[in-house]
Design goal:
There is one protein chain. It contains eight helices and twelve strands. With 228 residues, it is α/β, with parallel strands linked by helices. The protein folds into two domains: 3-123, Response regulator (Rossmann fold), CATH 3.40.50; 132-223, Arc Repressor Mutant, subunit A (Orthogonal Bundle), CATH 1.10.10.10. The strands form three sheets. A five-stranded parallel beta sheet has the order 2-1-3-4-5, sandwiched between helices. The chain has a four-stranded antiparallel beta sheet with strand order 6-7-8-9, covered by helices on one side. Strand 3 (48-52), helix 3 and strand 4 (75-79) form a beta-alpha-beta unit. The chain is globular. It starts with a strand and ends in a 5-residue tail after the last strand. The mean pLDDT is 86. The protein binds calcium ion. Calcium ion binds at residues 9-10, 52, 54-55. Pfam families: Response_reg, Trans_reg_C.
Length: 228
């Protein structure tokens, strides 16, 4: 069971989502415009936000960006706009997933479950630094060691932090700007290129496994859960 915030101005749709999510055992809060949504994020710290794109007050993209300035909880964007460019914009704003309207309620429930699983991994990362496994890759955050097929891989501090973030959030795309801020703690002109060169070095050091760090065109990078 999780706390879920629905930010959606179509009242009927919002209520429908609420009743299904409550049947799944979740605790649901509703906001019907952008500013109210942001206020509820601050007040309730939901585990997940379902965020409509077209909203009065402040649109979903702006709300998503503001959430991402302060929080890591998963955000699923709901939208009637279906163009690829919108998906890219949504991911760039920090959304975890993107569900075009109209959608089936079962599909949305499945996406919510998947996003909550990923969210739990993000939340748990700081508390208990258990080793992270992906296939033959093993990262030990406590010892700060990485092995592939049991063989140690020598990484710099930056490469290690970058790999850990990507693997802990496997499947999620991160923008270059987000990675810069999270890993380097600042942004600067041309910073995207330093991310690119770090990723290139990391891929080389990881060999075949490095191919699972994929470029998300127009956005940044993502570690894929399993090879394509
Ligand atoms: Ca709307």
């Amino acid at each position: 069971m999780a706390r879920i915030l629905i930010v959606e101005d179509e009242v009927d749709l919002s209520n429908l989502l609420r009743s299904h999510l409550e049947q799944d055992g979740h605790e649901v809060a509703q906001a019907f415009d952008g500013p109210a949504g942001l206020a509820l994020v601050d007040r309730h710290r939901p585990d997940l936000v379902l965020l409509d794109w077209m909203l009065p007050g402040l649109d979903g993209l702006a709300v998503c960006r503001r959430i991402r300035e302060r929080y890591l909880m998963p955000v699923i964007m709901l939208t009637a706009r279906g163009e690829e460019i919108d998906r890219v914009l949504g991911l760039e704003a920090g959304a975890d997933d993107y569900v075009p309207k109209p959608f089936g309620i079962r599909e949305l429930q499945a996406r919510v479950r998947a996003a909550l699983r990923r969210g739990a991994m993000v939340a748990g990362a700081g508390a208990a630094p258990a080793p992270v496994m992906q296939g033959t890759l093993r990262i030990d955050p406590a010892a700060r060691t990485v092995t592939v097929e049991g063989e140690p891989v020598d990484l710099t501090r930056t490469e290690f932090d970058l790999l850990l973030l990507l693997v802990q959030n496997a499947g999620r795309a991160f923008s270059r700007e987000f990675l810069l801020e999270r890993i380097w703690g600042y942004t600067h002109d041309g910073g995207g290129r330093s991310v690119d060169s770090q990723v290139a070095r990391l891929r080389r050091k990881l060999g075949l496994l490095g191919e699972r760090i994929v470029t998300v065109w127009g956005v940044g990078y993502r570690f894929i859960d399993r090879p394509a």
